[in-house]
What does this fold into?
Amino acid sequence: MTIRLHKTKHKRVMIVNRGEIASRVAKACRELGHTAVGLWTDNEPNAAHLEYCDEWIHLEGKTNAETYLNVEKLIQVAKVNEIDGIHPGYGFLSENGGFAKRLDEEGIVFIGPNTEAIRVMGDKATSKALARDAGVPVVPGTAEAVPTVEGALKVANEIGYPVLLKAVAGGGGRGMRACENDDEVKKQFEAVVREAVSAFGNGDLLVEKLIVNPHHIEVQIMADKKGNVFHFFERECSIQRRHQKIIEEAPSPFIGSDEELRDRICETAVLLAKTVSYDSAGTVEFIMGEDKSFYFLEMNTRIQVEHPITEEITGVDLIICMIQSAFGEDLQIPSQDWIKKTGHAIECRICAEDPITMLPAPGTVTGFETNFPQGVRFDHCLYRGLNVTPDFDPMVGKLVAKGLVRDVAIRKMRAALEGLYIEGLKNNIPLHKVIMDDSTFAEGKYTTNYISEVAPQNKINTDINFDSIYRKLAAAEARNMGM
It folds into this structure.
């Protein structure tokens, strides 16, 4: 199934991002007949995404604060270059309501949701209260921020331990601590406040019931400016380190063949999006207990890193839909029933990090080769000479494998990981290989505790397999020689 494209008025779209997502957006713009305008900074004059852009603009500066996070500089650059719309990708300013509002004031289209939706859903306390009022199940706990440790203790004893202290403005796993008793709340409260202030400029905290052995399930939605909201089924994102995802699947193996449950959670996501008059790509995240009861966590008002697996099982280009929606165009989706899912897709985030400690490991790529089976997609920003610095997220690519059924997708992912060779840059490919061979993963019964309980990082073979390296180098040399 594919989206039927129609002629649209030519637009100039500036991509305020870098890496693989900038390349992905540029390709979508060009497919729609728009001009993709890319940015490059003093930090990355040879940025890989520029290859897919029609025009390049130098954004002076070396730090994120001087470049990708500098709202007024970006607006000035957009005005000088007669930009019609800005796509923020994910991260940076993608969920910044102030940025979206300034663009609106300048008559530049923000390729994302309306500013009110960003404001409401970007605050965990506000979004939780809105979800509760709409009849969406929420995790037991506070709807408003708890200002004192005494207040946190009172709530914790009312809802029962274990509890989670969570920053109102948090994200990416920061500003979150689990507590098993009063002493831990007393010990952790101020620490979480400090972390939240440092990371988000907001120290407000919520206190929530901690769901034991949970699954992280999220639903992809897409909405236009005519009131239409559609879901594209769910993704399982339970394999995480430090509350950050490293492997995602669609559909969820935990939900499995329970279509009634699948319909309920997806329709709940649509209900919430309609409540806030949502009008772009977005993801409604839920936590699901062992009994398959589910609770609203938060809504990400942007495109997600893991959107490719949804595209693979539905055949719908979500970035193209996002651009069409932003410019007030028809998504050309007749009804929810028109959207079908086929097969199974898995995504492994390829990161420049130590596969055992899972901590960032900056470095320079000295060699890069791929040899993938059919049914594999690799969205990446890799090239020989790429310098991965601590300035950006350590993710350098997203390896996606699709199969008719989950077992085939796993088999293809194993082969794809064997066929991906990155020289000079420590990465987490060895960790992904162990997980793909793990019985708990194969059974699809893993939870968000997988990394701590199964500890696949402890099963990584640190011995260098020279035979494998030589085979890959020989294959690369043969391809270079046209053999």
